[in-house]
Specification:
It contains four helices and two strands; from the N terminus they run βααβαα. The protein is mainly alpha-helical.
């Protein structure tokens, strides 16, 4: 199972379009002082948006198949 969040995961979780999903990931990267090429983990994403890690992990697993 993947441990990072991709744009498609954000699209599914929040019902956003690709560009908006990228912007949301950019906010998380900025918060954690990550560079553009560095991935966002499930834990970082869940903590930033106040979601449960399990919920995010389920979406990642669903989109992985």
């Amino acid at each position: 199972m993947r441990k990072i969040v991709k744009t498609i995961d954000v699209e599914v979780l929040f019902g956003k379009q690709k560009r908006q999903a990228n912007n949301l990931l950019r906010l998380v990267r900025a918060h954690y002082k990550k560079q553009r090429h560095q991935p966002v983990t499930i834990r970082e994403f869940a903590n930033f948006y106040g979601l449960s890690e399990d919920e995010v992990a389920e979406t990642v697993l669903f989109n992985d198949n």
